Amino acid sequence: MPHERIMIRELPIHADHGHPGFKVGDFIYHEGFAQNPDGSRGASIAFRHRHPHFEIFWFRGGQGRIQRDCDVIEVVPKSLLILGPGDIHHWTETRHLEGSMLAVSEIFTSSANFSLPFRELTSFLQPNGSRSIHLNSNEDELIRHVFAIMRESEGPSNFDQREVLKALLLILFSKINGFQVGRGARPRAGQTNPLASEFKQALLTQCPRLATVKEFAQFLDVSRSYLHRTVLRETGRAPSDFIHDRLVFEAKRLLLHTTNSPMEIAHHLGFKSTSYFSSFFQRHTDLSPREFRSRRVA
Questions:
Q1: Which of 60, 87, 107, 221 is the most exposed place for a label (fewest CB within 10 A)?
Q2: Strand boundaries in the chain, DSSP class E
Q3: For the domain bounded by 7-182, which CATH number is listed?
Q4: Residue-wise pLDDT tens digits, 41-56
Q5: Cα atoms in the 13 Å half-sphere on the side-chain side of 49
């Protein structure tokens, strides 16, 4: 039902088996349920939920359909799916869907070793990001090997295993970036300052807690004017435009997946009044919050 309670399911990825920050494993989904190793039916995967971490799925068999916020994504073998922190999602159809999944915390990917390759994946996680990649045979074989070695490296903690897993994650992130470029998702010419990418990544995890250019500038430890100039030069858009897009996206999430009133949503998103929130939402969508909700629910 459209107004069912949103569950938050946390995976123990921050301190698991001595490998803080990520977890990798296989999955089998069938008819809306996870399948246990003995073949019995496990937990439901059909309820709406979200995570505080990133998830990267690789599919090797079956078919499925996942609803992520306002979008429905078809998944098939030889494809990747990327979900970001806070994405509200649930599986609407699964037919012997199987593969591997990596869960990785935002804190882990913000470390010096991982920030460069991983922050480029944030283009997938913007409101208009594609979220999925269909792989050719060579790409699929490469991803299969990476996941297989990561699974084999799970176990008692030691320095060598941790370093191997870190190297494999770097390979995975870098290859996904290469797949993007190979499909025409090329970065704007002249993008050399990492601040724009860091700002986009912060949008994923800090909005709506942060909702102004000044607040994001303080979070990123730069001046407001420097953040504005850099993002505008690197992307062609002002940081306020990205913030407005994200606030509209968060508002749509809440209108679609909760029974919260426009007043409650306005308060959650930091608007000073319901009327200001309603005019802001209508200016960006041509619909009032109530009209948007009624059309999506109908």
A1: 221
A2: 7-8, 22-30, 33-35, 41-44, 49-50, 54-68, 71-75, 79-83, 89-104, 132-134
A3: 2.60.120.280
A4: 888 888 877 777 788 8
A5: 14
